[in-house]
Amino acid sequence: MVSAGLPIPVMTPAAPSWGATLTHEGFAIVFVAAIAAVFYGLFVDMRDSMKIYNENCPPMVIEN
Questions:
Q1: Quick one: how many helices (H) and strands (E) in the chain?
Q2: Fewer CB near the terminus (10 Å): N or C of the chain?
């Protein structure tokens, strides 16, 4: 946050760099969140498929 007490000539050169930094961090956060969501979705699908596999197969098949 830029305080209102800062003079405009000091605030103006910092505005483009702050904007670029925020957009870059925003893209990085979205990118990491998308990867995490994909991995979490794969993990949930794998866990659910294993649960269905355990319910449909006899215990001897799982132990061996």
A1: 2, 0
A2: N
- List pLDDT tens digits, range 19-52: 555 667 778 888 888 899 888 888 887 777 767 6
- Residue at 54 is within a domain: yes
Q: Which two tokens stand for residue 64?
A: 């061996």
Is 62 strand, coil or helix?
Answer: helix
Full residue range of the structural domain in which residue 36 is found: 32-64
Exposure string of 16-54, with b = 16+ CB inside 10 Å and e = fewer, is eeeeeeeeeeeeeeeeeeeeeeeeeeeeeeeeeeeeeee
